[in-house]
Amino acid sequence: MSLHGATARRRPEGGAGPGDCSRLPLHGSAVGKAMLSAQSDPVLSGLLPRIALTPLTDRTVADPGRLRHEIAETRGRGYAVDDEEHVPGMRCVAAPILGRRGRPVAALSVSGPAERMPPARLASLGALVRGAADRLTGLLAAPQPAR
């Protein structure tokens, strides 16, 4: 498997670069919301009260009810959206990747400047990311050859 990407000429202040995703907030990033959406309801119910809904921008989800609503929307469409919630001027779509036991193990995301990822484009990008994440899930869930 290979992953291809384009490197930005400049990284927005506060933006995550490759490998930085372990530091993304669950409530204020598409990666975090994708991972939350793939949790079982009992796990999610235990996890949500422990998340500090600290605003990162004026668009960050900082209300528990709104976060639950966004998780439900993410489950419905198969991908999460970060609409300038983590970094002003940046948007992101992400979909969960599930492991062999059907639990989230990672998320695949695409992010870029808001002017290159207008709201009208998020659905098509989200569908592409969801499709790629589903293919990766299939690869991870497939039985491994004996060695």
From TrEMBL:
SUPFAM superfamilies assigned to the protein according to its UniProt record, in alphabetical order: GAF domain-like
Domain IclR-ED: 1-142
Location of the region described as Disordered in the Swiss-Prot/TrEMBL record: 1-24
PANTHER family: HELIX-TURN-HELIX TRANSCRIPTIONAL REGULATOR, ICLR FAMILY, HTH-TYPE TRANSCRIPTIONAL REPRESSOR ALLR
Protein name: IclR family transcriptional regulator C-terminal domain-containing protein
